[in-house]
Amino acid sequence: MADMQLDEIPTLSLLYKLSRIPLDADHPSPCEPNAAYNDKISIIKADITSLVVDGIVNAANEALLGGGGVDGAIHRAAGPDLVRECRGLNGCEAGDAKITDGYKLPSEKVIHAVGPRWYALSPEDAEAKLKSCYRRGLELAVEHDLKSIAFPAISTGVFSYPNVKACNDALSEVRKFLDEGKGDGLQRIIFCNFLQKDQDIYYKHVSKHFPPVPAPAPEETNAAAKTSTDEADIAAKLPDPPTSEPKDPEEPSAKKQKTEAAADDLVAVDKDEAKGTPKGEL
């Protein structure tokens, strides 16, 4: 799969202009519309290991040594040097994150965020830890002067965090971080979904947290016409999303890197292959 450049990833502002985001007129957002925020936020259905951004977030486990789903995919794509660096980090607690180099990934850095296991905690504790994952990811990005960062749907796979709640918790924490003025140095915050159901959920709920800016006055429309045309060209060139998930690292296979011609299809499957039940993010 070809790498995806940052200028190929649509902003929320563009998605609103193209009417890709549904709006609920009966339930207006309590949040103030902010054009600068909408120019920072992106939602894309893609393989996160293909994004050419400053940093991607890994939905890791406490050991930080790789696993299934996106965790295994990132470790395979980055190569063995990633796990060697992770061994020196002495693990990570749920709700926290640690940063490493990206090695063979197109992203410069990987931020390993350990999400909560929904079934092991009270709903309140799980929510606090998931929000902390997104905050710690953003804090590390700012601390290391990263300008673009991509998040997967943390904890929504085998960690069983409800997908709709995970989406709203992630969006609300990112909005809060920006409202506090802590994300001014970030140019792009990407919610990268591998599963169509997560993409649909983000499209449905994002306007609650990042509502569209009202349409400009008629005299401003002509000045914006060329920009709109350029943005439409970007949208038309968006690559097709992946159709399969990353392979479980314990599944016997030729572990070739994504940069080789015969790269893995990055499919994450249940260890009981007879059932064929797919896995998502940790």
TrEMBL record:
Biased segments, Basic and acidic residues type: 245-261, 268-282
Top-level taxon of the source organism: Eukaryota
Domain Macro stretches: 28-210
Transmembrane segments: none
InterPro entries associated with the record: Macro_dom, Macro_dom-like
Disordered as annotated region, ranges: 213-282
Listed Gene3D superfamilies: Leucine Aminopeptidase, subunit E, domain 1
Descriptive protein name: A1pp-domain-containing protein
Species in which this protein is naturally found: Paraphaeosphaeria sporulosa
